[in-house]
């Protein structure tokens, strides 16, 4: 366990904003968890969990508490057959390194999520996804430290209440409660099958790729993302800044009347009930509101992928709030739809024990 004091959040997060955090605690093994949380509790410090900082944004006032950073490494293959792989991964591993590792072994299920920045432990928190794949599709369980009850727990995927960018780890009374130590995945030894998303299929056609191995799909997705998305280690950003929008059935007609394209898909919920999902690509809204390439208070709406906000010159989270409001107002004025921010701010999460 490594403890450092007065570390700027701008050095820990990829948007490069935020004042100092009182303490940064790096955990390199699960056994260090109790000591880390005891340290924070003894000093009466609020806590915040951090991976690579790609989905967190620092506040100007910093964080008067302890940032607990996951640095737990390692791959543990629990079972490998000709049909599937069950693998336990340290939460501090880089997500894309894990995707590369299993894709090269020919196992499918995460290859379309290549180059998503962040750690393995961060992936279930917001149920990351891309090109039709989501973490919930392959995650078996996580080992975690329950920071409220001060005990180790194992949580199966079916208890994580997954939906779009949603889980028990980032919402409701359990938000910020569980520090994820390891993640266990089940992957299949098979090739991904079309139909693929349009941009991915276009790339495959253009490069005459017809052998849809996990590794080939990973390479294609990596190249697509490299062309459109800035590397957050080199260019300050926080990945997709706005979430895609999901409409109710009643909201579909007004949106269509304003010319908004809606992707409709038949889905089945966790209880087996079928429903229709109505999805709006927020990048399309931003582009068609004539925001692509525009700069607001030091933040540029990327001219390659409009969902990305690039920090060109801003030094304040207040600038980000102003930029976000102006951008959101323009989209709502034109299309009648409200945008929702995807990355979260580094701040205290209140927790209470449920006595029932």
Topology readout:
Blueprint: E1 2-8, E2 20-27, H1 33-42, E3 47-50, E4 56-57, E5 63-70, E6 75-80, E7 84-90, H2 95-104, H3 122-125, E8 129-130, E9 133-134, E10 139-146, E11 151-156, E12 178-188, H4 198-206, H5 214-228, E13 237-240, E14 245-247, H6 249-257, E15 263-268, E16 274-280, H7 282-288, E17 295-296, E18 299-301, E19 308-311, H8 317-335, E20 344-345
Parallel strand pairs: 2-5, 3-5, 4-20
Antiparallel strand pairs: 1-2, 6-7, 7-12, 8-9, 10-11, 10-12, 13-19, 14-16, 15-16, 17-18, 18-19
Helix pairs in contact: 4-5
Structure commentary:
- This protein is an alpha+beta fold.
- It has three domains: 2-70, 2-Layer Sandwich (Uridine Diphospho-n-acetylenolpyruvylglucosamine Reductase, domain 2); 75-188, Uridine Diphospho-n-acetylenolpyruvylglucosamine Reductase, domain 3 (2-Layer Sandwich); 242-340, UDP-N-acetylenolpyruvoylglucosamine reductase, C-terminal domain (Uridine Diphospho-n-acetylenolpyruvylglucosamine Reductase, domain 1, Alpha-Beta Complex), CATH 3.90.78.
- Helix content is 23%, strand content 29%.
- It has eight helices and 20 strands.
- The protein has helices at residues 33-42, 95-104, 122-125, 198-206, 214-228, 249-257, 282-288, 317-335, and strands at 2-8, 20-27, 47-50, 56-57, 63-70, 75-80, 84-90, 129-130, 133-134, 139-146, 151-156, 178-188, 237-240, 245-247, 263-268, 274-280, 295-296, 299-301, 308-311, 344-345.
- Strands 6-7-12-10-11 form a five-stranded antiparallel β-sheet, with no helix packed on it.
- The two termini are 35 Å apart.
- Residues 351-356 have low confidence and may be disordered.
